[in-house]
Amino acid sequence: MAYNASEALPKQIEALLAQTFPLREIIVVDNASTDGTCAMLAERYPQVKVLRMTENLGAAGAWAAGLTYAAFEKGYDWIWSFDDDSVPDSTALETMVGGLEESRRFGGKIGIAVPLAVSRTGACYPPWFWREGFAKPTAEQIRQPIWFADLAMASGSLVQQEVVREIGVPRADFFMDVFDLEFCLRARSKGYKIAVISNAKLTHEIGNTREVRLFGSLRHWMTQPPWREYYISRNLTFLAWRLYPSFLTKMSITRYLAVHFGGVLLFSSDGLACAARIIQGFADGLRGRLGIRLRPGVGGSRTRSVALAPTEKIEAGKA
């Protein structure tokens, strides 16, 4: 899915076209871009399917539209999704397909497979566990070639059609952020496993990231605009108080938001505005007020693209 991504998309599309395991089709969900994204795609990549939205639906709405088209209209068995700031290695899909075959020896039904995302600076963004709240994987777990998580970001996720047909598409009313975590938890609740294929690599940048020291520990701090802080706070709160309410869940999310609130005041250039949006988001999440309540500024929206992989029954050399 893409919003004003005329500069970012070519690098990603070239990486998809260069995959050693070829794709059936590449789809871009255009979120009403105003920078000539569609014209660029028509001129440089006429083979790419473009789904043009009449308004910016956010990453959540665009992913929902892409999965609806891919799973229900086209009937693809596996759908590979990306943010515009994610670029897979040329062997990523081939490695993930091989990992899917290998992961079956662990038993259970694999509904989602994800690569290991790293930044250009070498920072790693591994999937997490959900133990009535967030739980980090250990370094030993991350080093395993195949392991299983509960929470993974949408970018780089290879989703089986069966999952979409059983649990539905991501929640468009989340607009931005946390929608992928909610989708993962919904899939896990139906017994689907999320396989992490560590040898499949994806270069991914999350916001404007830098290293900071917060409460005695070194962290990768992501500077976000106030409207993004609103959606992060609101959707996490809704997740903990409305969808998976328990004392431990509420404590985990409250702890995360409190630490993040302090970090915003210390490290964000627009800290007071961000802090105000976090409070607003927390209040709206408690009340269950979802939907598009704040719009991003010009160039403020993250972008996303969707690539469609071959069927689960892999036949070498077939596109």
Question: Please, could you describe this protein's structure?
Answer:
With 319 residues, the chain is of the alpha+beta class. It folds into two domains: 9-207 and 299-309, Spore Coat Polysaccharide Biosynthesis Protein SpsA, Chain A; 226-287. The protein has helices at 9-17, 37-44, 58-73, 92-103, 139-143, 161-167, 179-189, 226-243, 247-267, 271-287; strands spanning 25-30, 49-52, 78-83, 86-88, 109-118, 124-125, 129-130, 134-135, 146-149, 158-160, 192-204, 208-214, 217-223, 304-309. The strands form three sheets. Strands 1, 2, 3, 4, 5, 6, 9, 10, 11 and 14 form a ten-stranded mixed β-sheet that branches. The chain starts with 8 loop residues before the first helix and ends in a 10-residue tail after the last strand.
